[in-house]
Design a protein that fits this description.
The chain is α/β, with parallel strands linked by helices and 463 residues long. It has helices spanning 67-81, 89-100, 110-128, 132-144, 160-163, 203-223, 244-257, 295-308, 323-333, 349-358, 368-371, 374-386, 404-412, 425-440, and strands at 6-15, 21-29, 35-38, 169-170, 172-179, 192-196, 267-271, 278-279, 282-283, 311-315, 338-341, 363-366, 390-394, 416-418, 446-447. It folds into 2 domains: 6-129, 2-Layer Sandwich (Enolase-like, domain 1); 144-454, Enolase-like C-terminal domain (TIM Barrel, Alpha-Beta Barrel), CATH 3.20.20. An 8-stranded mixed beta barrel has the order 5-6-7-10-11-12-13-14, surrounded by 6 helices. Helix 9 (323-333) links the parallel strand 10 (311-315) and strand 11. The protein is globular. 56% of the residues are buried. Bound molecules: 2-phosphoglycolic acid (PGA) and zinc ion (ZN). 2-phosphoglycolic acid binds at residues 42-45, 191, 271, 273, 342, 394, 396-397.
């Protein structure tokens, strides 16, 4: 007979999309099939993220092995969880946090803890005989109280941000076209040049548009003598361009070449990832200026680009420590574009709370491994929604074939997903899972797309 009592907790070392070792955990409930989860890994990590435990044993895999984290799952964590109820995600995560006992999960490793936390959710789904998206929906309901299953009537979205988190939603994808920064040999200072297909009316249409822009961008790059084949860690093109503006212009050209309208059909987002060129209180942007920029000059520059180009989203425009700069950009651009804190908030309730109190940003990136348990991830998502911040569920630059975040973003109705580009199967695993969910949840899940940005009177999408 199946029950949700945890009977076995097992882990192994597997490899991610950069060929780096990572943790895979299997949790099995009595009489059920195991639930399995794989842990992603970032390259441009924030200083305040939960700590990924690596072996640091130079004689093996350059010290990157995760055998210590694996051993922690198979011994200490397994002993603590066997016999517990996998349906009680909050209690499981509370135990994991307590067992580790450090502020950034550095003792057992956030990779060991997250793999276990997620595998428990999958094991519970197996034991209850429900799909992962249904199980995530139940867990989300227990975090936020009752959530409706009634889909939004099309053409009647009302006060859209209030719909976020309330019902199952296929997300608006935010998709990398050109990679720079730490993801593509530092050719460009900015990390991601992304598109948001805000004018599409369904997830599948949005995805088709993205694929066409990506294909046209490859052609445009080749025609202009750039490398239109080499791709970065997240599948975006990694051409050798002189400036960040050139990358934006090429993406605009690709949108037009796909027969779409820049701005109203497909808008642009940037992940500036500025923490990585912030040195001694200044932003080092040699392609813009030989002397490093102050926070104010950085805001001036981005303000100019937001005016000049169809940009509607800026991630980490200022560094993780630059609260004053963040405040300034929020005052200047917060009613015109989405301002996402990634390194700034690291999916951490305390950091997001500080941001809310200081009046900075209007959006938060949600990455499960930045914080290390499913429950804490959902707490941050809830805090964001309670305060009118747009959540953007996100993958890492180091990913696996695990498509968990596709189920998570739909179940929570977060509204947006950032996964990288439309090449490389660790990315497509998520996009394809969304196509399956769009089909299987027809009638139960809605698609709001770009309408989620209609809240702000000054926004491009207020009409
Ligand atoms: P990372 O990049 O996974 O390397 O941190 C993703 C991002 O910065 O959004
Ligand atoms: Zn980022």
């Amino acid at each position: 007979m199946t029950s949700s009592r945890i009977e076995r907790v097992h882990a192994r070392e597997v490899f991610d999309s950069r060929g780096k070792p990572t943790v895979e955990v299997e949790v099995t409930c009595a009489g059920a099939r195991p639930g399995r989860a794989m842990v992603p890994s970032g390259a441009s990590t924030g200083r305040f993220e939960a700590v990924e435990l690596r072996d640091r044993d130079d004689s093996r895999l350059d010290g990157l092995g995760v055998r210590r984290a694996v051993a922690n799952v198979c011994t200490e964590i397994a002993s603590a969880l066997i016999g517990l109820d996998a349906d009680d995600q909050a209690e499981i995560d509370r135990r994991l946090i307590e067992l580790d006992g450090t502020p950034q999960k550095s003792r057992l490793g956030a990779n060991a803890i997250l793999g276990t936390s997620l595998a428990v959710a999958y094991a519970s789904a197996e034991a209850c005989g429900v799909s992962p998206v249904v199980r995530f929906r139940e867990i989300w309901s227990s975090v936020v109280g009752h959530v409706s299953n009634v889909p939004v009537e099309s053409g009647h979205v009302g006060n859209v941000p209030h719909e976020l988190g309330k019902r199952m939603l296929l997300p608006l994808p935010m998709v990398n076209m050109i990679s720079g920064g730490l993801h593509a040999g530092r050719q460009l200072e900015f990390q991601d040049f992304l598109i948001l297909p805000v004018g599409a009316t369904s997830y599948s249409q949005a995805f088709e548009w993205i694929v066409m822009v990506y294909r046209r961008l490859g052609r445009v790059l080749t025609e202009r003598g750039h490398e239109g084949i080499l791709i970065g860690d997240e599948g975006g093109y990694g051409p050798k361009l002189r400036t960040n503006e050139e990358a934006i212009e090429l993406v605009v050209a690709a949108i037009e070449a796909a027969g779409l309208k820049p701005g109203s059909d497909v808008a642009i987002g940037l992940d500036v990832a500025s923490t990585h060129f912030f040195e001694e209180g200044r932003y080092r942007l040699p392609s813009v200026s030989s002397s490093p920029l102050t926070s104010e000059q950085m805001v001036d520059l981005l303000d100019r680009w937001v005016t000049l180009y169809p940009i509607i989203s800026l991630e980490d425009p200022l560094a993780e420590d630059d609260w004053d700069g963040w405040r300034l950009i929020t005052e200047r651009l917060g009613s015109r574009v989405q301002l996402i804190g990634d390194d700034l908030f690291v999916t951490n309730v305390a950091r997001l709370q500080e941001g809310i109190e200081r009046g900075v940003a209007n959006s938060v990136l949600i990455k499960v491994n930045q914080i290390g348990t499913l429950s804490e991830t959902l707490a941050t998502l809830k805090l964001a929604l309670d305060n009118g911040y747009w959540p953007v569920v996100s993958a890492r630059s180091g990913e696996t074939e695990d498509a968990m975040i596709a189920d998570l973003v739909v179940a929570t109705g977060a509204g947006q997903l950032k996964v990288g580009s439309v090449a490389r199967s660790e990315r497509l695993a998520k996009y394809n899972q969304l196509l399956r969910l769009e089909e299987s949840l027809a009638g139960d899940a809605s698609y709001l797309g770009g309408a989620i940005f209609r809240r702000n009177p000054g926004s491009r999408f207020s009409s």
